[in-house]
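Exercise (ungraded).
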Amino acid sequence: MIFNRPATDLAPALIGATLTVRGCSGLITETEAYTPDDPASHSFPGPTRRNAAMFGPAGHAYVYRIYGMHWCLNVVAAPGHAVLIRALEPLSGIDAMTARRGRGKPLAKGPGMLAQALDITGMDNGRPFGPPDFALKPGTTPDLVIGPRIGITKAADWPRRFGLKGSRHLSRPFPFSSV
DNA sequence: ACTCTGATGTACT
DNA sequence: GTACATCAGAGTA
């Protein structure tokens, strides 16, 4: 897996990959690309304390807190580029994820839920991806759907949200579109 | 199904 | 002071 490339290339490549975090794993079903020329990207204003990891080595995590209570996990791509992991299909460690999320609740249908299910916090900011505890394993290239982004106010309509076609483990449905 | 709102911390102007 | 790459619960239907 080549991490050091534009987020717009890495984001679709991560769909279908398996993310493993300390005994829990899942199939990535939804990502979003953020680039330095994107007004909605944390890297848009240039390096700051919060976004330092986005300008660090590719293949590391960029984790930040949002709305005071949730964490969001990104994979750092080229400098100033990152891919937000928005949703996944749980594969293993489901008991632990359920315990952290609460019984009957969706486990990882959104970036905040995903971080909570996998117990990802600011402690993981800057951590390199690699086996065995924090791994990102490429899968076979699946059919993708592409659509506008979610939860942002600037450039929300840029088609930079990628999903696994037909998956039920998405934060929201995609408007009809595919590659 | 949908829309609205409160919770909660911090980075940045 | 304001905005924020969100979620859960309550309300309406």
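Further reading is listed at the end of the chapter. For now, observe: Chain A has three helices and eight strands. Residues 7-164 of chain A form a domain with the 3-methyladenine DNA Glycosylase; Chain A fold (CATH 3.10.300.10).
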